[in-house]
């Protein structure tokens, strides 16, 4: 199993553990409230969304990942989503370590 598959499995595990916030509004709120430790946004999201999330994550110093498509994210978490935020430091650290 490669790191990409491991990372997607980790997203599914975080979803089942209740440590994942999904959807544009809730993810942006998790960034603003500093409850989100790592944000994953689909690379096929709209240019406006990509800019909005990039600016917000940069401003709040939160890691942003644009390596996955919306289909991959949706399949991993079982919901049709383009954005999600890990709200647990352990999950965020594990996810980040798979992308080094």
Automatic annotation (TrEMBL):
Domain Ribosomal protein eL8/eL30/eS12/Gadd45: 6-87
Entry superkingdom: Bacteria
Protein's recorded name: Ribosomal protein eL8/eL30/eS12/Gadd45 domain-containing protein
Phylogenetic classification of the source organism: Bacteria, Bacillati, Bacillota, Bacilli, Lactobacillales
């Amino acid at each position: 199993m490669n790191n990409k598959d491991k990372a997607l499995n980790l997203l599914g595990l975080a979803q089942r553990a209740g440590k994942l916030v999904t959807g544009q509004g809730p993810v942006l709120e998790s960034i603003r409230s500093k409850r989100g430790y790592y944000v994953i946004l689909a690379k096929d999201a709209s240019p406006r969304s990509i800019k909005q999330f990039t600016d917000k994550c940069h401003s709040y110093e939160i890691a942003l990942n644009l390596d996955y498509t919306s289909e991959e994210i949706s399949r991993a978490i079982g919901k049709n989503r383009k954005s999600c935020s890990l709200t647990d430091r352990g999950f965020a650290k594990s996810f980040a370590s798979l992308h080094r």
